[in-house]
Amino acid sequence: MRIRPFLxxxxxxxxxxxxxxxxxxxxxxxxxxxxxxxEGQSKPPADGSRAWEPDDAMQRAExxxxxxxxxxxxxxxxDTASAFVASGMDKKHHTSGDRxxxxxxxxxxxxxxxxxxTLSRGDQEQAYGIExxxxxxxxxxxxxxxxxxxxxxxxxNGTGLILWRLDTIARDAVEGCDDDVDxxxx
Length: 186
What we know:
Order of helices and strands: HHEEEEEEEE
């Protein structure tokens, strides 16, 4: 039989494969740690939850904005953007036309539970707490007319993002206070 010439080759291949498998283990029997996070990479939290990742955070924030959207309000997108919490947000919005506006905002952060959103127009100013990581964005009614500014102060060394959207909505879709900049007497 001609199997004999291949026998040394098979034995060598088996020994090589077995040696490679053993090289992946440390002397104490632990598995290879070559895929462990290197210094500077985020590590999973000790409580067993997942580590904060920007892509996942953006998807969660987009879902929160979508959850806050009401198709019965017949929204028309005016503007949308995002910012890092370390940079904050300071944006002046023009509210022309005759339809009211709906300003929706959410945040997703690593370790920050709440940010303060300040809405202002001229001398009027109103501060609101925005819970980060909520499944639905916070919504604020803004009447058409004068421009308003939405501001979130930067969080030094903060990790996370702010996502917002400004829509016009049908007049009959305004719920609650019709001017959250004024605060309706609060």
